[in-house]
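Handout, section B. The chain below has 371 residues.
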Amino acid sequence: MLTNLTLKMGVMITYLSHWDWILYKSRKELVTYLDSHDIHAMCPDGDYLINLMKVYKSTTTWEVNREKLLDFNAIRTLRKHIKNVETNYHCFTLKTGLLFAVAKIGISTKRKAILSITGLGFMFTDNKKAKLLRFLIKPFIKNLMNSAFDVIIFQNHSDKEIFINFSKFSNKIEIIPSSGIETSKFIIRKNKKKDLEPIKVILVSRLLYDKGILDYLELVETSKNINYEFYLAGERDHGNPQNITDEDMDRILGNENLKFLGKLDVETELSNFDISIIMSSHEGFSRILLESLYVGLYCLAYRIQGTEVMENFKNLELIPLNKINEFKKYIENFTGDIDNSHNMQLVEKNYTSKIVAFQFEKIYKELDVLN
């Protein structure tokens, strides 16, 4: 089902996603900076749809079953939208891009389409379903991507090389690191004395296996002998194949050495902590790591393509995958003091929402899709 809420014919750009959270979490600031243009939203109804309606020119609901690798009902309704509404598209995430590419098969239009790949995600993991999906679509992926998209935006060069080699995409390619953060909204951490106040360690993430939730549980269990407080913040993602099971959720809630916080207001509450742990096995450009470095936390992260792009930041240790004991070593050596001036300047110069919005606008102008 496709429901128009305040849809206008002849809109200029539709931001498309299979999850309303994606169009809200960081894109709402980008849309604010692009407010002089007609930016519309199209996504499933969810927790953030009402907020989206306050930011975008209009919002169209698009029913998608996020638990399906390819939702053919969603493809059919999207296909109707592509045929009937004169709009350019900016798709966010690889899954949304695949749905759009399939929906656009055989449709001739002068309108432009852009895909932002914020991380290769589940499709390029070693999961059996992901391997099967790659096998099934590889014979078609070259024609699909090249006919569907005029530009693909990546957040790091590693993801670009992997995907271009797989898809043989030959149209325009851009690298835009990060989705941008609105720095004025963040509270900056104040230094503390380690011997006077407990050091607080936190992992903030969706509760997915590929975000390192089980590794973090192991770290907590092996750190019982140090006088630190461990926290976990985030929500389950029931539409994601990597969502943790009820059994593992019970393990989290029953762990007396770990305090589960649920949803965290990162902008105002992240500064209450001292050490930020990132144990994800793949990222496009780790948003929580960027936020943690800006706020002034000491950051420990697995060295992956989406974290090593930030190795020019200070107060950051990049650790080889699966070396959980290395995290414990750095945690124990933390003094409590952080000089954050370098990181704040680096973010302000390169990674704000305003800077990313400017880069988007430049692409839109080159494609002549702005009003």
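Note. The chain is about 40% helix and 15% strand. Compare this with the example in section A.
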